Amino acid sequence: MAYPYQPQPSASAPITAYPYQPQPMAYPCQPQPSASAPPMPVLPTTIICPQYCDPYPVNLAVVKKSYIYQMSGSAPVTIADNLTITDVNDNIVFTVFTLGDHRLLVDAARNPIITLRRKILTMHDRWEAYRGQSTNAKNMIFTVKRSSLIQFKTKLDVFLAGNTKEDVCDFKVKGSWSERSCIVYAGESNNIVAQMHKKNTVTNILIDKDHFMVKVCPNVDYAFIVALIVILGEIKDGTKGSN
Q1: Most buried in the list 22, 36, 70, 141, measured by CB within 10 Å?
Q2: How far is it, in rounded angstroms, from Cα 129 to Cα 139?
Q3: Pfam families per the record (predicted)?
Q4: Does residue 20 lie in a domain region?
Q5: Are 126 and 145 in contact (CB under 8 A)?
């Protein structure tokens, strides 16, 4: 590919890199693994979209809102759980809507970003993520499944669409939805790319257990991380089918 707006070096000049070429993803805030640790996989800089990769840590607040319906004389029923994701200034970044068996992640302008769908008749609670509102296989971005059938705390393996063999996961999620705590790792390494934790305020402790924080490391696609948090909330803790 030619770069028509770049000055061409002379024959004697050293060859320099173009300043806008994408660079491999780095994790500057992470401790270096030991020599015996599994090698860190080569990761794409962008998974969903470049605009969701910032060169600094990103802190997001997530609020879960339940919509309850009650008929006269019957018990209340939760018909939908939606999530609102905001930045540190309380500006809405994403909203997640429940649409039947789908979860739709939209941006602040309500443009569809990702559709999440649970794959039926699977043993490991597999979820699939697609671009926009598509569920076409050619638009699949990644899949997520339990690392094992029986778990006391959730462990999820994440495979990008190009990883068809699924011998080694591209990302791993470990944690507990009931405790609102999890860590996202790069592959089988100890490199942390994001963390979720409760928002520790007096109000939160007293009345609102569904208000929590997500910290995303620099150069990590935070739309992708939010999608993983949504799937974690759907799969939850314990053995298959538990709450």
Answers
A1: 141
A2: 9
A3: LOR
A4: no
A5: yes
234/219 Cα distance (integer angstroms)? 26
What range does the domain containing 198 cover? 50-70+77-235
What is the C-alpha separation between 185 and 191, in angstroms, rounded?
5
Q: How many domains does the chain have?
A: 1
Residue 55 lies in a domain: yes
Residue labelled with tokens 């640790």: 37
Q: What tokens were used for 32?
A: 């270096």
Sequence-distant (6+) residues with CB within 8 A of 43 are 24, 25, 170, 186, 187
Confidence at residue 2, expressed as pLDDT on a 0 to 100 scale: 47
Q: Residue 40, Cβ neighbours under 10 Å: how many? A: 18
Cα–Cα distance between 218 and 30 in angstroms, integer?
A: 10
Per-residue pLDDT of the chain (243 residues; tens, 9 = 90+): 444 444 444 444 443 433 333 344 444 444 444 444 444 444 546 899 999 999 999 999 998 876 655 556 666 555 566 889 999 999 999 999 988 888 999 999 999 999 999 988 666 689 999 999 999 999 999 999 988 766 667 899 999 999 999 999 999 999 887 777 899 999 999 999 999 987 665 444 444 557 889 999 999 999 999 999 999 988 864 444 433
How far apart (Å, rounded) are the C-alpha atoms in residues 131 and 171? 19
The verdict on residue 90 lying in a domain is yes
Residue type, 49: C
In a domain, 93, yes or no: yes
Tokens coding 60:
């997001």
User: How far is it, in rounded angstroms, from Cα 225 to Cα 212?
Assistant: 14
